[in-house]
Every structure is written in structure tokens, then in C-alpha cells.
Amino acid sequence: MARVKLSEYRAKKLIFTTLGMIYGGIGINLSLDSWQKQLNELNDDTKYVSKVDQAVKKRNKLGLVMVGRTKAQAIEDLLSFKAQGYRYALVEPFVTHREKDEHYIALQREEGGLVLNYSKRGGVDIENNTDSLERATFSEEGFEAGSNTTSAPTALVEKLYDIFQNAHMTYLEINPCVIRGGSYIPLDAAAEVDGSAQFFVKGAWTEDDIRIHKTAINQAEKAVEALASKSPASLSLKVLNPNGSIFLLLSGGGASVVVADEISNLGHHADIANYGEYSGNPNEEETYLYTKQVLKLLTASSAPKKVLLIAGGVANFTDVTKTFKGLIRAIADVQKDLLEQKVAVLVRRGGPNQQKGLADMKHFLGTAGIANDVYGPDISLAGAVVESLQRIAK
């Protein structure tokens, strides 16, 4: 099951409809010439919220959510978002409310069923109030009111349960949700769905509603595309979060999936900065050029703690020594930046000439003073992921 993110616009349309309300937001594609015409329906005397709608985590802190805006100001905001390279945005009416009415509510699909997390202390500081979270588990077979052991309004939970199941969601978070008496107003919403379900969700969402946190044009992706077009090797790169903390240099499509899924399963999917692979026996120069693009992303990230995970399965024919020479050259180019940013490097790789390749990498990283752990197939890919997450947790 591939978990993908829905646009906030689509998530809110689903939620509002389920709650029996009309959603007044406007979803905007900034790459279209006609986007400004969509704003003609806005009122000059109404206040709005304008925000990037592109699966960006912590948008408030990045200046990608603007509150209490006039129609003219909202247009200025969208022009700014477009100038920064963002493609999708959202404009919706501003809802005046009291902070004490902000609640947090989230549903997540886990092995034991659908798990609800709820707090009466919602808002941007929810991470500092995790002790206020209440938890309940619901069966996949149907909603039972008695299973709601939290203080969340059961009427609200039941409706969210229904849309969660009908839209084949894997995660739904509303934070904050303004609760006043029997009324519920989602101010911010994030939803993930089973990507393979688009063929039987009956119009709840389509492929066009899927969002990836990336700007419209990413130079690193373009550089790798150009490199791949000239090489028989398999080279791919997708930027998921430019300010992520986990940067991946993955060899082999199978290993790439395993690593990404394990990071996601451990609750750190939002920390993954990039995804892709270098495989098919790339030569030293190709590996060097590919690695340089990933390291450019890493050194530009604003994350306070960063780790570079170099991982792969046990290769059948890709020469570990050859590719590692390219990796080492690229890392050496930004050695000073890595030391200044206290980046840790964790390696897990196997295949032809693995002993020499791993020894060369261990020697280089140690001599350079870069924090590191270097392994062969003696630890699993999952184990390498756990150690990487420990690096950013320290």
C-alpha cells in the first residue's frame, strides 16, 4: 500500500461535506494563467487565509500561511508563493475563534484497527502538549460509539470514521478543529490515502488531488534527469521535503522501498527529504554527480539535525568499491559544510568488492572527522534505519 497525501483543499471538501456543511475555500493551481480569475468571487470586505497547499509540514513557521488577509493581500501572497516555486495554494475565509476552542483530532490506520488521538489543547503547539492526548481504538468492521473512550464528541468521531473508511484514508489529522457546542469547523487538515484506491473511491478523490511537497521546478531533479538520460544505469531523484532531516542515497529499487517504508512506519515520513535510487552499476563519475545533487539538498536544508543514509541491499553486479569512490569524492567536496552542520553519515551496503568499499568509506569518514557508522550486510536495512533515526534524535 502506497500512502500518498491529499491536498488540503480536497481533504476539507470531504470533511465539510461529511459534516453537512459547505466549504468556502478555493483550490488554486498557480501554474495556470487563469488562476487570478478564480479570486474574482472573493469579497473585498471579507478576511481570508492564504496558504501553500503542497504537503508542506510546519507551514506557519515557514511563512507559507497568511492569516486575516484582504482580497488584495491574498493575491500578493499567492504571487509570493508562486515566486518561491510552489504550484498549489488555497484561499479560504478566516474564522474568528478563541484559542480555547482549538482541538486536535487524528485518525490513523494501524495493525490493531483505527486509532483515534484527541486533545482539547490543539493548535500549533500540540507537539508540546502530547501529555494531553487521549487515545481510542476502533474496529475496521464498523463504528461503535462505545469504543470512543476519549472526550472527543462521538458525533464528530463517527462522521470522520465514515469518511476515513469511504475515502480509503490511512491518516487524517485536523489541527486545529474549532469545537463550539455542537458545531465543528476544521481550520487545518491533512490526509493520507491508499494510492491504489483511486480506482474505487467513487469520486471522493482523484490522482489530481495527490500532493508532493516540492516546488514546481527543482534543479536537483532536473540535473538527475539529465544525467539518467545519458546513462544505462538507473538514476532517479524526487525531492519530498527540502527542509527534511533524513537524506537518502539508496542503491536498488527494492532496498529503496524497504528503507522508505520503514522510516514511514516508524512515524518519520515527514522527515524524509528525498527519495530515489542509483543502481544498475553506475560508474564512479555518474555516482559522484548523482551524490552531489543529494548533498546540495542536504546542505541547503534548514533542519537542525541531519543524517545521510547510504543504504542498499546486497548487489549482484554493482561494484561497491567503484560507486563508493564516487560517493567519497562528492562528500569530500562538502566536507566542511557537513562538519559545520554536524551531519552524521550511516552506511549499510553489500555486494561485489564490499570489504574494500566499506573499508575505504570508513577510513575516509573517520579521517574527515564526520560522525559515522559503516556496516555491511551484518545488519538489516531496518536496523540501519533505526540507527539513522537515533542520530537525529540525539
Helix and strand layout, with pairings?
Elements: E1 3-6, H1 8-18, E2 26-29, E3 48-52, E4 65-69, H2 71-83, E5 88-93, E6 102-110, E7 113-119, E8 134-138, H3 154-166, E9 169-180, E10 183-186, E11 189-194, E12 210-211, H4 219-229, E13 234-239, E14 246-251, H5 253-265, E15 274-279, H6 284-300, E16 307-314, H7 320-333, H8 335-340, E17 344-350, H9 354-368, E18 372-375, H10 381-393
Parallel strand pairs: 14-16, 16-17, 17-18
Antiparallel strand pairs: 1-11, 1-12, 2-5, 3-4, 3-5, 6-7, 6-9, 7-8, 9-10, 9-11, 13-15
Concise description?
This protein has 394 residues and is an alpha+beta fold. Helices cover 32% and strands 27% of the residues. The chain folds into three domains: 24-93, ATP-grasp fold, A domain (Dna Ligase, domain 1), CATH 3.30.1490.20; 99-207, ATP-grasp fold, B domain (D-amino Acid Aminotransferase, Chain A, domain 1, 2-Layer Sandwich), CATH 3.30.470; 219-393, Succinyl-CoA synthetase domains (Rossmann fold, 3-Layer(aba) Sandwich).
